[in-house]
Design brief:
The complex is a heterodimer of chains A (about 150) and B (about 750). Chain A is of the alpha+beta class and about 150 residues long. Chain A contains 6 helices and 5 strands, in the order E-E-H-E-E-E-H-H-H-H-H. The termini of chain A are far apart. Classes of the chains: A alpha+beta (about 150), B alpha+beta (about 750).
């Protein structure tokens, strides 16, 4: 079947197998940031934005993206660059394998709620698993970013 | 304590790869290797103990896209071990690439090489296997001397004598002691005697096992793998495939977590075999399910402990017996078990008059265990710390007081720890610090919240080692670039731990330069100097010292080159990092001149390599305290606060040390409260994905606070010890303690699920 979609701002028209998953489609198009951590929609590593909303690309058919707009971290480098140094300062990137999904969902969070509380951050990102960091450093990083944006340097 | 002012060491700074990782750049095995490599899939056995009587692949081979299918008949018949350990390995040579005798549910029976995943999956359905199903040994408690042998083969081979015997289902056995433990125990006022049980917990690193293989431009086998052990991997592949080691190159790119899982060559042999047979690039990516059912999890252990004390709380004797389940294969079996005693009992060196530690490691027809952060110490510490908590509750003593009374202190000789001396030990300060920070006196009493919920606290101590004494070798090569920068080449594996960064910090400290001047390369068997690899909490302590030594050598070499330029003796040259100075005249030579000198009419090179090994393995120490709120109706345990104070010597990068500690604590919370493994009647695992194997989310861990008490380890680089593993050890005993405080029931089996709490199962 043929689909037409916008991937990171670029129009793509392609014949695909109907059972092709979105994760495999975007990885094939060079978006290697999108990672598969499980096959059961539990880990959040494959998070992409579909029409601006975070979805798990391992659980979405590529066909569902027909006529839609997809963003992966490859297309949101600038937006991510605003806050990732705060995560890095905590050393909370660790192995990095969960980072793209976590960063994508953080982008979605901050677009929806520019000034979240700690509980709102934890709740929004609860589907993004990380086995290395223990999560606390990721939270400190986001908090530091939000504080810096308010002009305070804590 | 020696305190030194360091410029780069002891400072928090981002990891060298942080930006690449956080921006999702392609840095992992699957990202950087070709998409059109052959897809390698494994057909796995549904039986726990069986012999393949017939296997038909002809029909499956006709599927378009199937390149070849291999069975036990096609593979070399030489047994090998896949544990990443120093030669001669303590682990028995008990594996074949494919064995006709199947020993656990999930063991591969065929290797499928296909042009694409779909064809491979179709082939899995069309391969016809007839099994002669045998009785399986599924209960590891009954495995020793069971009439059914897991490894009846004649070519079973232990490279080291570790007390194993395949005719008895024994991977290893042993005993050691100091003093007369029976005599002291019989003289004790109180003896706590119980059996503790921990499961085969899964590392659940976010990146599953994966390996890519190809023939390089010289026709050698080039392996790109997510591994902690490039050099051991090369040896394992050589043993398995029967090809010379100089015909193999193993490199690791970035690794998506390891936690010890990737200290075993779990996935490497399959695509390597396919490349050898077909000549084509091949790639295997384990599914999450494969990672669970055929990975390399923690050794399930049952620890029977007798702890004797006097009425005043003096701990006088510990007798500890560990039964460890190595599963179907023996990798890491003989060594993990050692830590259950050697890294738990010595914490009470302060008062202990006698100890005995004995063990059996058995084969069974369950998934093969391997290395997992903590490596046996986690299991042993759960038992010992639980017993000490029980003793304090029994005697009505504060559990922190009883520990202060008995704990190991700086300068003590530890008979239960190979007679090593605790040269750097701040365990007493860790306890005092944690008690104050946590407000122990306020949180320890049980507080009824009036809504069916109670709040209370628990405590535990932990220790680990820093590398394997007399075994581990760390190495580093440091090279000067033409503009005064450096390349640091290592064989240790940064798996997210940040070792590339902290080793660069040590190099920068030694060379007196900014850390940005140090670029790190690793790990690649062709280019890196030999390193055992990153495991056993060795990299900071062992490889770190090698980095320090290599830099000292390079500084001397730089002075010698400077002397050649000036035409004087090397003694007249000083290099303090910034510039090379000719002392008599004060003339300065830029580092770029030194580097360029080596590139023009020169027999010198501005590089140095050093290796390091240690006769001791200095333990880091820590104290963890947890406050929980337990719902008596549902049995749910909510963690309010987890606080810990760690003595890892001098933390090289405090931010990274803190993250290590926080991550380890949360992993420990996971195996204490939710992560579980249960087996069906046929020996198959129930929790084979992240839907059922529940690891903590960010809603599950409460507030974490980690602080440090410094000590200065005289044999470590810049006073450092290790941090990677110890941090997983306190949650189980601390939480079991808090749950006892809330419910009056001691839980001695992990995980302690809400069901067990509600029904009061011990």
């Amino acid at each position: 079947m043929n689909i037409r979609l916008k991937l990171n701002g670029k129009m793509i028209s392609e014949d695909i197998a109907p059972d092709l998953l979105l994760i495999d489609f975007v990885r094939k198009h060079g978006c290697k940031s999108v990672k598969r951590g499980c096959e059961t929609a539990n880990c959040g590593l494959c998070t992409v934005l579909l029409n601006g909303k975070p979805v798990l690309s391992c659980s979405v058919l590529a066909a569902r993206a027909d006529g839609q707009e997809i963003f992966t971290l490859e297309g949101l480098q600038e937006e991510a660059s605003e806050f990732i140094s705060f995560i890095a300062n905590q050393g909370a990137d660790q192995c990095g394998f969960c980072n793209p999904g976590f960063v994508m969902n953080t982008i979605a969070l901050l677009r929806e709620n520019p000034d979240p509380t700690d509980d709102e951050i934890k709740s929004f990102l609860s589907g993004n698993l990380c086995r290395c960091s223990g999560y606390e450093g990721q939270l400190r990083g986001i908090r530091d970013f939000l504080d810096s944006r308010k002009g305070g340097d804590r | 304590m020696e305190t030194k002012e360091y410029k780069v060491v002891g400072r928090s700074m981002p990891k060298k790869d942080a930006t690449q990782l956080l921006l999702g750049k392609p840095v992992y095995t699957d990202d950087i290797t070709p998409d059109d490599a052959l897809v390698v899939k494994l057909l796995r056995s549904p039986h726990a103990n069986a012999v393949v009587s017939e296997i038909q692949t002809a029909v499956a081979k006709r599927i378009p896209g199937i390149v070849d299918i291999f069975t036990w008949e096609d593979v070399p018949k030489n047994r090998f071990a896949i544990a990443g350990q120093t030669y001669p390995e303590p682990s028995p040579y008990d594996r074949l690439i494919l064995d006709r005798h199947i020993r656990f549910v999930g063991e591969p029976v065929a290797i499928i090489a296909a042009e694409n995943e779909k064809a491979a999956r179709k082939a899995m359905k069309l391969i016809k296997v007839k099994y002669e199903v045998l009785e399986a040994v599924l209960d590891f408690r009954k495995a020793k001397d069971h009439p059914v042998l897991v490894h009846p083969e004649d070519d079973w081979f232990p490279p080291c004598e570790v007390g194993g015997d395949n005719r008895r289902n024994l991977v290893a056995s042993g005993e050691n002691h100091d003093g007369d433990v029976e005599a002291v125990l019989s003289d004790c006022d109180v003896v706590i005697e119980h059996t503790y049980h921990t499961k085969a917990f899964d590392q659940a690193m976010m990146e599953t096992f994966r390996t890519y293989t190809e023939f390089d431009r010289y026709g050698r086998l080039h392996v790109v793998s997510s591994t902690q052990i490039v050099f051991h991997c090369r040896r394992i592949l050589s043993n398995a495939l029967g090809i010379p080691k100089n015909r193999i190159r193993v490199e690791k790119p970035r690794i998506g977590g390891g936690f010890g899982a990737k200290q075993t060559a779990v996935s490497e042999v399959y695509p390597a075999f396919v490349t050898m047979k077909t000549g084509r690039p091949a790639k295997i990516i384990f599914t999450r399910e494969e990672s669970h059912i055929a990975g390399s999890p923690r050794h399930e252990m049952e620890i029977t402990l007798r702890l004797g004390a006097s009425r005043d709380g003096t701990i006088r004797a510990i007798d500890l017996y560990t039964l460890s389940n190595s599963g179907a294969y023996g990798e890491h079996g003989p060594t993990t078990v050692g830590l259950s005693g050697h890294k738990s009992i010595p914490m009470y060196t302060g008062s202990l008059e006698a100890f005995r530690f004995s063990y059996d490691v058995v084969y069974s027809n369950t998934l093969a265990a391997g290395a997992y952060r903590g490596y046996g110490a986690t299991q042993g510490i759960f038992a010992v710390e639980s017993a000490v908590n029980e003793l304090s509750e029994k005697l009505g003593m504060d559990p922190t007081e009883i520990r202060l009374k008995n704990m190991v202190r700086e300068g003590m000789v530890m008979p239960a720890y190979y007679g090593e001396t605790a040269n750097a030990c701040a365990l007493d300060r860790c306890l005092a610090h944690c008690r104050e920070m946590f407000e122990w006196d306020k949180k320890y009493p049980v507080r009824d919240m009036g809504n069916g919920k109670v709040r209370c606290a628990g405590v535990a101590m932990a220790m680990q080692g820093s590398g394997i004494s007399n075994v581990d070798v760390g190495s580093a090569t440091i090279k000067l670039t033409e503009d005064g920068g450096y390349i640091l080449m290592i064989g240790a594996a940064d798996m997210g731990t940040g070792c590339d960064t902290i080793l660069a910090q040590m190099a920068a400290e030694s060379l007196g330069c900014d850390v940005d001047k140090i670029s790190v390369f690793g790990a690649d068997t062709d280019a890196s100097p030999y390193d055992s690899g990153s495991y056993a909490s060795s990299t900071t302590y062992i490889t770190g010292k090698a980095v320090e030594n290599a830099c000292e050598k390079l500084k001397k070499e730089i002075c010698a080159i400077g002397a050649e330029i000036i035409g004087c003796s090397a003694e007249e040259i000083q290099f303090d990092g910034g510039e090379v100075i000719h002392l008599p005249t004060g003339k300065k030579i830029p580092l770029s001149d030194i580097a360029y000198k080596c590139q023009c009419f020169s027999e010198r090179t501005a590089e140095a390599t050093a290796s390091h090994s240690s006769p001791v393995s200095p333990p880091p120490y820590m104290v963890g305290m947890v406050e929980i709120e337990l719902d008596k109706l549902t049995g749910k345990v909510k963690i309010i606060d987890y606080m810990a104070v760690v003595d890892c010597g001098i933390p090289i990068n405090p931010a990274l040390a803190r993250i290590q500690a926080e991550g380890g604590i949360v992993q420990g919370i996971g195996h204490t409260l939710y992560e579980n493994l249960t087996f069906m009647e046929n020996g198959g695992l129930i929790e084979k994905d992240l839907m059922q194997y529940k690891i903590p989310t960010r809603l599950d861990m409460g507030k974490l606070t980690v602080e440090f008490e410094h000590s200065h380890e005289p044999t470590g680089p810049f006073g450092a010890k290790s941090i990677g593993e110890i941090v997983i050890n306190t949650p189980a005993p601390a939480l079991a303690h808090a749950i006892y405080r809330a419910t009056g029931v001691w839980h001695r089996e992990l995980p302690i699920t809400p069901e067990k709490i509600v029904f009061g199962e011990e």
